């Protein structure tokens, strides 16, 4: 799998008459999302970002805005599958690639993927996103309880699959008779005869064949220390796709913790020991970046939580992936 990061500079325009430009039934593909539209006077902005922080004139603006940029996709073969992965756009997003509508998504804090297979060309391409954060179009209550930012506020990545590749890798840990087990499963795109998958974690490794474009592996009796707030041990799992000669074609590396959690007699037990949850409600809002959470800001917040003795946090909406990773690290 090849990836192209689309973070960085985008062209930006606030649409002050969306009923005519964006939601005009006589114009199914809005003019402003076409690759050849003149964007010379559009504002240059940074993605991830929220438009309330782009300029003072957008401080309290709720409406429809258009984001647009070009990018180089490299060589795109006829068989290639491609998708755009958006980690967060608030609130309603319509995505266009090279002037064609590719898909849409509603809700502002969940990751979504748009299939753009067949819409890319080799070399230069164009993507445009119409973002609508008007309260009237949301399914949330009119009174949010926090500020209604608008924009592409998390990462944007293009994924191109044109050769044998791992995909949708999932892991699951369990404890049986005092022994830890890890299961890894996933898909293999463009799988061929003789392909195999190898998994390695905590000094244990195993391998298996690819069957019907999928794999499932088990690592038994892993010599690990259980994850806990007092000792947040994480282990790296390496998953490799190999050809019949043992050559590595693709690889995924993820970090994971081993722990059990269940309710016993009305009490939450972590690793078979009762745990008292101590936490706060966390709604992120930065004076400088709004919804955009940098890793430095995440680490600062979690450090403050730990200093208060917290071992849990409640959020109103799905957080950025980096926030969960930082929580895993800090316990």
Features:
331 residues, Jelly Rolls, Immunoglobulin-like, 6-stranded antiparallel β-sheet, 8% helix
CATH class categorisation of the largest domain: Mainly Beta
Oligomer: single chain
Radius of gyration: 23 Å
CATH architecture of the largest domain: Sandwich
Structural class: mainly beta
Per CATH, what is the topology of the largest domain? Jelly Rolls
Strand order of the largest sheet: 3-2-4-10-7-8
Given as residue ranges, the uncertain stretches (5+ residues, pLDDT < 50) are: none
* Tally of separate helices: 3
Helix content: under 10%
Number of domains: 3
What is the string of SSEs from the N terminus onward? EEHEEEEEEEEEEEEEEEEEEEEEHEH
Quote the average pLDDT.
93
Largest sheet: 6 strands, antiparallel
Strand content: 35-45%
Number of strands: 24
Shape: flat
CATH superfamily of the largest domain: Galactose-binding domain-like
